Amino acid sequence: MKKVLITGVAGFIGSNLLDHLLSRTDWSIIGIDNLTTGSEDNISHQRNNPGFTFIKQSCNNLQSLKEFDCVFHLAALPRIQPSYELIREHVDANLMQAIHLIELMVKENHYPRFVYSGSSAIYGTPEKTPTDESAAINCMNPYAFQKYEVEKYLELIAERYPLNYVTLRYFNPYGPRSFNPKNSFNPYSSVVGIFLNKKKEGKPLLITGDGSQKRDFIHILDLTEANYKAAIHPEKLNTAFNIGNSSTLSVLELAKMISGKYEFIPKREGEADITFADISKAKKILGWEPKHILKDYIANA
Q1: What angle do CA 44, 67, 108 make, to 5 degrees?
Q2: Is 205 among the domain residues?
């Protein structure tokens, strides 16, 4: 039986990954979260599951990874705009916690499969779409830079030590638990979650800029399956994969799919004009491809 660690387990992606793994495997899972942005409500239904143990703590307080066969590192502050103001806080959450885990692996000479949650934000506004993993890196904001720094540390440290990692560059995830009204960062949540919550409240959807910016939206269940596929792959990969839907939709088009009530607000700087994933590498090597359709999710939300 595999023993697995999920960092950031009480967040949007972490809690959905927990559900996915518990439904697919008999692994023993320990989840940690300092609850800065995560919520115990997201994992309360799993608290009595014998395959899961929750510990409230930060990654920085972990003393050892020796017991784990696999580590899913999701703990982060995944918000672009706040990363400009709360710089030290974001560096700690998005870079230093990962560095701590890498240092533990080197110190203990124990190298579990390390599945790192990266971001398509590192591409900025790409020169070519669909965008594959060889595209130029163009970090347009501190959050993207922090996520890319971790990728480079993994790559560089692996030249000297036998790291066993997979980086998954998420595009724009959506799905259950993507919007937490109690989270102080909720204005920067998945735009799908924000729009659905506005509709639920009977308020107009707020579109930044003119809404022409396009996004590649990936359902959380497809994303968690990619994590599972990365964890069980029999070979050491030490590479990055795009995890998107390989389609793109403007924010204005998205708004119209959800509600006829919308308004425009000023554009936010530092955000890409388009995200559009080429996922052929993940299809070929991981045997993964998305199955869920955004329109269906919105219709049933």
Answers
A1: 130
A2: no
Tell which residue, 242, 238, 246, 226, has the closest CA to residue 286.
226
Beta-bridge mates of residue 277: 131
Q: Which domain holds residue 26?
A: 3-175+219-244+277-292
SS3 19: helix
Instruction: For residue range 183-194, list pLDDT tens digits in order.
Output: 756 555 789 999
Q: Where are the alpha helices (DSSP H) in the chain?
A: 12-24, 82-85, 87-91, 97-108, 142-157, 191-201, 220-232, 251-258, 280-281, 294-300
Is the pTM above the cut of 0.85? yes
Domain count, the chain: 1
pLDDT digits (tens, 9 = 90+) for 263-297: 999 998 899 999 999 999 999 999 999 999 999 99
Residue with tokens 């669909």: 130
Distance CA 72, CA 31 (A): 10
Handedness of CA 216, 187, 92, 105 (dihedral sign): negative
Q: Are 55 and 259 in contact (CB under 8 A)?
A: no
User: Which residues, 6+ apart, have CB-to-CB distance to 37 below 8 Å?
Assistant: 11, 77, 180, 183, 184, 185
What CATH number has the domain bearing residue 286?
3.40.50.720
- Residue 135 to residues 226, 274, 283, Cα–Cα distance (Å): 21, 14, 18
Side-chain half-sphere exposure of 212, counting CA atoms within 13 A: 2
